[in-house]
């Protein structure tokens, strides 16, 4: 379990079909093999740790569902260690289970904020509503507005400086995880509705 509060930006050193090697700093404190780290919002298991770097394995399903295939050595990755039982829930409940990879459609400066409009895949449309939570590249964000096939978020200066969302431009790919609570509520009402139709 994660909160969507990025602790550090790591640097991708090596990207292969079966795994990643990432350079990092303070998030490695206390991290050992078998621990979970959210890498751009993807919950991955640490398989090896060295001085200033760690490795994770990546399954074919992970490659298919996420933006990993588009990354190059030197790219910045948002990193977050799993939540401690006595830790603060600064963002929202993030599982690290990416549901889709989508793209930035437009960016626009708005005062101190950066408005970002993002394509909304059809299968996620029931779960994205104005003012709900969404995790993009592992960053906990509030949805500003929603249209049929897109939605918007607004990035504060801190988020732009401390996460790779500060590099958002048209065409940039993003890992998306919708709010698990919203998904459960939607599934409950869907199942209830279908059950009543069958009676």
From TrEMBL:
- Name under which the protein is recorded: Riboflavin synthase
Q: Which keywords label this protein?
A: Repeat
Q: Which GO terms describe its molecular function?
A: riboflavin synthase activity
> What Gene3D superfamilies does the record point to?
2.40.30.20
The Lumazine-binding repeats are found at 1-92, 93-189
Query: What would be one Pfam family of this protein?
Result: Lum_binding
Q: What class of enzyme is it?
A: transferase
Superkingdom in the source lineage:
Bacteria
Enzyme Commission number(s) from the entry: 2.5.1.9
The GO biological-process annotations, alphabetized, read as: riboflavin biosynthetic process
The Lumazine-binding domain is annotated at: 1-92, 93-189
């Amino acid at each position: 379990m994660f909160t969507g509060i990025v602790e550090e930006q790591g640097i991708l050193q090596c990207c292969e079909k079966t795994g990643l090697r990432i350079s990092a700093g303070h998030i490695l404190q206390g991290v050992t093999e078998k621990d979970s780290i959210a890498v751009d919002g993807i919950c991955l298991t640490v398989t090896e740790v060295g001085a200033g770097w760690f490795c994770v394995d990546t399954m074919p399903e992970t490659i298919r569902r996420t933006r990993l295939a588009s990354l190059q050595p030197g790219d910045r990755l948002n990193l977050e260690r799993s939540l401690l039982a006595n830790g603060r829930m600064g963002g929202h409940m993030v599982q690290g289970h990416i549901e889709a990879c989508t793209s930035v459609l437009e960016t626009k400066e708005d005062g101190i904020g950066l408005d970002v409009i993002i394509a909304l895949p059809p299968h996620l449309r029931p779960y994205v509503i104005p003012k709900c939570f969404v995790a993009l590249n592992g960053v906990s964000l509030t949805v500003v507005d929603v249209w049929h096939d897109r939605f918007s978020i607004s990035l504060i200066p801190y988020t732009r400086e401390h996460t790779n969302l500060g590099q958002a431009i048209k065409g940039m790919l993003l890992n998306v995880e919708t709010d698990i609570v919203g998904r459960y509520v939607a599934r409950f009402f869907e199942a209830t509705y279908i059950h009543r139709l069958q009676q």
